[in-house]
Amino acid sequence: MASLKSLAKDTAIYGLSSIVGRFLNYLLVPLYTAKLSAESGGYGIVTNIYSYVALVMVLLTFGMETTFFRFSNKEDEKPSDVLSTTLIAVGGVALLFVILVLSLLQPISAALDYAEHPWYVGQMAICVAVDAFQAILFAYLRYQKRPIKFAALKLLFITLNIGLNLLYFVTLPYLYTKYPDLVGTIYDPNVGVGYVFTLNVVCTVFMTVFFVPELRSVKWHFDVQLMRRMLQYSWPILVLGVAGILNQTADKILFPKISTDANPLGQLAVYSACTKVAMIMAMITQAFRYAYEPFVFGKSKDSDSRDTYAKAMRYFVIFTLLAFLAVMAGIDILKFIIGEDYWSGLHVIPIVMAAEIMMGIYFNLSFWYKLTDRTIWGAYFSGIGCVVLIAINVIFVPIYGFVACAWAGFCGYGIAMLLSYFIGQKYYPIKYPLKAIGGYVLLTAAIYAVYERVTFEIMWVNVAFRAAFVLMYIGIIVMVEKKNFIHRNVTKNVIAN
Q: pLDDT tens digits, residue range 59-71?
């Protein structure tokens, strides 16, 4: 129980930074959707390029975050050597990547359909390279159980980025109309969406300053033999990561190329803006992952930890389903996060949120192959899910538009989740509370069905009606979990006596 309390505490800290950070970051969504109309496709460009960035980020870190945790917790490995070797490897690959992209900037930009704006690509190449190096440093903070500094740096980056975006998309454009000669020295209205990428680079590079203490403490040494062992462990995770990130970004990369709409970037902008509303689920799963990964690898040294993993799954499902109901209860308010001309895509939000829940469950299940050093299975599962996702996109996007993107993610994550569960029970059986989880899912589905069938024209009445069902869900969960808690304690006492 103490270990679960530790997990809950760390999840709360990581979750606070993630949720508050994402909430602050949401300020950019109304900003971009107000300043970049859906018709212009400006927000679609941002989404498309950031999708490439997410994919490259996985390639540049090549599974070394998880590998770092695994090897740092091995009794026969020195954590200092693991850290140094990992930083040198990731930093070296990132540097080579930047040199390659900048030397071939024009043809690469043309291949990505940004021949007229090659510096969009160049700036984001620099940004993702620095991000990859910092990812290992952030992983080191998690390994050291320093969630406060981790959270503080994440929030600082977001706050700085938002501040600069408000400056360049609101304040300076206004001042430029009054003092063009003066303001024109630091602001050019023709840059437009390009400032999104420039400001990201500035903030990312600046954050490196705060890792100076950690970098100074590193005993720089590259262990070739250690690196070989780490690569043997990490390459399936790389494949898994590529497949996993494609599950998240393939639709946004493919959509402009396969959509039959007259304005594909405009439609992509609508879809992307609406999925931002659904990202409360991503916040929860990300916070859980930040705390759960070092927790599991540290807990793996204990002889009996499977019951703890089963409980963690139970509580994860409970809280993500609660988040689903809460978001859908308040959707009439949350939709104002984005511009009104983006509301045509709101119907994809429940689909995207359900897909995020399955992705979180899949992540929870994934530790069986990480703990047993069978990471190749993760590559298989994510690869199959990715193939399904891409196939659904290619076949159905030309017919149904971005709705097909949402269902493709749902199917891809669902298949990967099911495969991981059934095969995992063979190699690393865990008695997950399937009946309880199934009951909570059915309860959530029933409440959501009421949401869909009973609606009121007055927004606040609709929100209050749905909020009552959220409270009912909480009440039922508390009652059931309290009963289960009492039952477990009675059973333990009977066995002890």
A: 999 888 888 888 8
| Cα gap 477→462, rounded to integer Å | 23
Tokens of 2: 């103490």
Q: Is the dihedral of CA 334, 336, 339, 341 positive or negative?
A: positive
77 φ/ψ angles, rounded to the nearest 5 degrees? -120, 145
Q: With the C-alpha atoms ordered 458, 461, 463, 469, is the resulting torsion angle positive or negative?
A: negative
pTM (2 d.p.): 0.72
Question: Angle at Cα 36 formed by Cα 30 and Cα 38, nearest 5°?
Answer: 90
> Which pairs with CB-CB distance under 8 Å and at least 24 residues apart come from 404-408?
405/251, 405/252, 405/255, 405/271, 405/348, 406/271, 406/275, 406/348, 406/351, 406/352, 406/355, 407/351, 408/251
In a domain, 343, yes or no: yes
In whole angstroms, what is the distance from residue 205 CA to residue 86 CA?
20
In the block, tokens 């994860």 appear at 316
Q: Within a domain: residue 497?
A: no
Residue 496 within any structural domain of the chain: no
Beta carbons within 8 Å of 17's beta carbon, 6+ residues apart: 147, 150, 151, 152, 154, 155, 287
**Tally of domains in the chain:** 1
337 part of a folded domain? yes
Percent of the chain with pLDDT over 90: 36
The dihedral region occupied by 145, where left means phi > 0, alpha psi between -120 and 50, and beta the remainder, is: left
Q: For 283-307, b where at least 16 C-beta lie within 10 A, e where not — what string?
A: bbbbbbbbbbbbbbbbbeeeeebee
* Residue tagged 């600069």 (tokens): 164
Tell me which residue has tokens 């840059």: 191
Rounded Cα–Cα distance for residues 472 and 450 (Å): 13
Give the domain extent around 88.
2-491
Q: Is 374 exposed, middle or buried (0-12, 13-18, 19+ CB in 10 A)?
A: middle
For residue 349, give the nearest of 364, 363, 332 by alpha carbon. 332
Residue 115 identity = A
Mean pLDDT of the chain: 84
| Mean pLDDT value across residues 177-196 | 88
User: Tens of pLDDT along 110-120?
Assistant: 888 888 889 99
Q: How far is 134 from 127, CA to CA, in rounded Å?
A: 11
Sign of the Cα pseudo-torsion (243, 248, 251, 252, in order): negative
Instruction: Give the model's pLDDT for residue 490.
Output: 47
Q: Which of 369, 367, 390 is nearest to 380 (CA)?
A: 369
User: Tokens 């970037």 appear where?
Assistant: 265
Grouping H, G, I as helix, E, B as strand and the rest as coil, residue 85 is: helix
